[in-house]
Amino acid sequence: MDHKMYNLLLVEDDTSLGYLLSEYLKMKGMELLWVKNPKEVIPLLEERDFDLVILDVMMPELDGFTLGAEIHERYPEIPFLFLTAKSMKIDVLKGFSVGAVDYLKKPIDEEELVVRIETLLTRLGGPSTEEVTRSDLGGYQYDPQNQCLRFEGVEIPLTTRENELLSYLIRHRNRLCSHADILKRIWGRNDYFNRKSLNVFITRLRKLLENDPKVKIENVHGQGFILRVPE
To answer: For 22-27, what is the mean pLDDT?
Structure first.
């Protein structure tokens, strides 16, 4: 099975289970950040972009249900699922009532977890470079397969890197895309030289999109960029 490149946040205070799951999911080609302290989660969601959060329920610092409810309230667009040893029906219902998209009981079957993640994110429209199809971008038509934009019948070719960057921004349209996430996803590394390169490509895309003043790439100082597109 060809596993898509999803960006996951795993919150699990059990060191052995956390290590096992993080290594297995990475082996399946997914990007994953594993944290043991649930208090780190909200600050991370403020600065980085994740396709899914995987939450343990029983944690000493902050229980998963409380954290899940906070995620749902502050970041309703970010799906999360629970991992728990609690198997009572009331606990399962509580998990869904705070906004969870799924609920897996321990002991966790790693392959089942992968299938659940992929099924959920496919259903929810989880991002993948390959999944961006032809789309309207204000007055533009964007064709990622042929690496071009069209405006009033005129074709505007894109380089491979411009196409990758524009696809990423479109998948997260009207949302903040952090420098770190863009660089890691597209350049493969977040460093000074790649950040300079990113700024150059953002300038190029702005020039290519200047025919429609409603389509803008905003700079959020010190954080990243937002592609503003009329809904």
So the answer is: 92
